[in-house]
Amino acid sequence: MIADLRPEGTAPDWTLPQNWSAYTAQDHATWDTLFARQARLLPGRVADEFLAGLDILRLAKPGIPDFDELSERLMKATGWQVLAVPGLVPDDVFFDHLANRRFVAGNFIRRPDQLDYLSEPDVFHDVFGHVPLLANPVFADYMQAYGLGGQRANGLGAIRNLARLYWYTVEFGLVHSAQGLRVYGAGIVSSFSETRFALESDSPHRLGFDLRRIMRTPYRIDDFQQTYFVIDSFESLLETTLNTDFGPLYDNLADADDIAITAIEPHDRIVSNGVQTYHSGSFQAAAPRDGLDLSATKS
Ligand SMILES: [Fe+2]
Q1: Which residues surround ligand 1, an ion (CB under 5 A)?
Q2: pTM of the model
Q3: pLDDT tens digits, residue range 278-298?
């Protein structure tokens, strides 16, 4: 559980000025190192919509982006903006921002010795990982719908179920494309090691997107995922979300057991049936995962 005490110096909505001029040369160099590594790795592995977002928002410009400049471009594309927060925010604050097309991003960057590991989402995870897809009109609408859904779920005691949808799409989602599987979740695209693991390892399961199934599936916050869910398209993800009556679904889920993290269910659409050797200890020398985001796990 994250403390709900608002940090000093933040506004009532938990935002604060990014204070861009306070970043050091080392901070910008850390961003550039991470950016260059992912820019080399992602083409051919990430959804085209993500690469288009990098272009639209001119994120290849060196250094940590200035949120005001970034918001100006994003506002023109989809009406979203990016605001700085000092760290994780409570659920209700997070949902309110999303519902109003505001994405809140940590304004700090990891230390140079933490390139592959961090315990809280930093500006690289939040901006490089999340913001490019916010320049896509369909995904932008999905994120707002998620925020509105979060506000309703809060009143229905169903945050735990809904957080799994965020986790398995916004953070760790895969998508079918004409050229094959692609990553789009921010936790993957901001992580050098999980980008390859999610697509290329024979360890994890990859299953077709199923909203109710996802809401019954726990997830890992400490390591690579053991199961990834694959959407057919961003359009279909948005459509499913908008067309689902979540109230009865939550009622129904209240009586349903969780599905074990490694299980394959009879109705699963199997994209790949993972051997699950990574998590059974066969590859313990692998790098720890990065891009960890607890924003959907603190309930
Ligand atoms: Fe995230």
Answers
A1: 121, 186, 293
A2: 0.92
A3: 988 644 433 333 333 434 333
